Amino acid sequence: xxxxxLIIGSGIAGLSLALKLSRLGKVSIITKKHSAESNTNYAxxxxxxxxxxxxxxxxxxxxxxxxxxxxxxxxxxxxxVTEGPEMIRELIEIGVKFSKEHGKLELxxxxxxxxxxxxxxxxxxxxEVERALLHQIKINRNISVYEYYFAIDLLTPRNLKKxxxxxxxxxxxxxxxxxxxxxxxxxxxxxxxxxxxxxxVYLHSTNPAIATGDGIAMGYRAGCNIANMEFIQFHPxxxxxxxxxxxxxQVFLISEAVRGAGAVLKTKDGKEFMHKYDKRKSLAxxxxxxxAIDNEMxxxxxxxVMLDMRLIGKEKIPKQFPNIYKYCMSIGIDPTVQMxxxxxxxxxxxxxxxxxxxxxxxxxxxxxxGEVTMxxxxxxxxxxxxxxxxxxxxxxxxFEKISEExxxxxxxxxxxxxxxxxxxxxxxxHDNVLNWNDKGTINNEEWILISHNKREIKExxxxxxxxxRNTIRLERAYRRIEMMKKEIKxxxxxxxxTVELLELRNLVAVAYLxxxxxxxxxxxxxxxxxxxxxxRDDRNFVxxxxxxxxxxxxxxxxxxxxx
Length: 563
What we know:
Layout: E1 2-8, H1 12-21, E2 27-31, E3 47-48, H2 57-67, H3 74-93, E4 100-101, E5 104-105, E6 107-108, E7 118-119, H4 125-138, E8 143-147, E9 149-154, E10 172-177, E11 182-193, H5 214-222, E12 226-227, E13 232-239, H6 257-260, E14 264-266, H7 286-300, E15 305-308, H8 316-320, H9 322-330, E16 340-349, E17 352-354, E18 366-368, E19 373-374, H10 387-410, H11 415-432, H12 447-464, E20 468-469, H13 471-493, H14 499-520, E21 529-530, E22 546-547
Parallel strand pairs: 1-2, 1-11, 2-8, 11-18, 17-19, 20-21
Antiparallel strand pairs: 3-7, 4-5, 6-7, 9-10, 10-11, 12-17, 12-22, 13-16, 14-15, 15-16
Helix pairs in contact: 1-4, 1-10, 2-3, 3-10, 5-14, 10-11, 12-13, 12-14, 13-14
């Protein structure tokens, strides 16, 4: 398969970019499950943007910087904030139906925001955005969607029969066609990673089962710079259901918008506690709230705290939060008359593949957008509802960059001549890329090893690299993950690939990156809280914890199944 533009992932980052790139050429989207399964689909709260005359760009920027605890990149923050309103207008144009009040957009408020600026579709914003984008994708003849294709690795010079030059570049991917159980090579002029996050590296996460850090792991193996992986955001309020989480460890999210509407955090005996930790109380940024809940649980030995939604109003709860209300009622909790049990759960990766302001990585022809990236927007802690905004703005930037580059290369010869040469080039690259070769591997039936290893990774990360950390815990986690990494590599080298094996391989890589990053930061900042260094300390301040892949000088293997 060859394509002009290959997008890996079907969330808001990938779909919004696909619609724009379809104006320039053929776009292929691959997704490991069905097209609607993405982190975007589970985003309840909304999208932060300055859409009210009483709000300002300066205020949104200031709120983002404060939440980011000194690690945000100002130019990246200013970019998403100033371009945000136009992104909202684009979504409305393609048919997204946001909640309105008296004919105007209903603007909610969430933790860390000084103004009401959260555009939402009740409490299912992500699902509504995904619906509208997928509808536009479906009717676009220049876009093809390939479901149940699992991206294995990016194609780089080591996958070529004859390398072109010394520059590190991307030529597409190897992908497992899950339905045929065959590995295919997909060649593309430009490849875009829009694979989402890595919440499944922890035992309990608000992320769906697909969030196994595939894009981050692939990028790392291909030589992308990875930064700030220690900043894993734990959402303060996932619904506590003892023994009722699904097999993937995904838990039900109680949106931050609920607290924005008036809900308050309390202990099991009904006492408020957030005033002891921050003047903003239950609407403090997520890192502060999650640590506060963790501390209260440790003091009381309780398994959860309570969220009192009754303060919102008996009539408003079902109207404003129908999805949350319906789910709570389905398990026997009436939030209009009872407090709701909540506990923090892994939610969002603030670090990832390093990109510039145009979504470019340090690997030629490889771009990235969304949660898979580290753009500098979120710093040490993401401000609520800035994630979908970042994804749209940087996907738009990627389109602008590729469009400008295309025009520049065409010069006076015209775009049609340029496109003709591009097609010939793709054919040449396709013939030069090694076919997947798994000769000598076997169909290993020891799948208990995979399930056991996956569980062990999640337990190690949850026990030692959670909301609160220390050096001893990190070192212990590092030793265990390093050993598992070697074991999994040995198993991978001799075994035919499956979805389960590929996800395990990616999970252990992401776990390693999180721990390695955390060990570099000898201070407490944002989402990284160290008992050894309980206070933010400028003497130990590290701007970014960048991890680069080290490539050993060795003979290139004859086959293409390499690590």
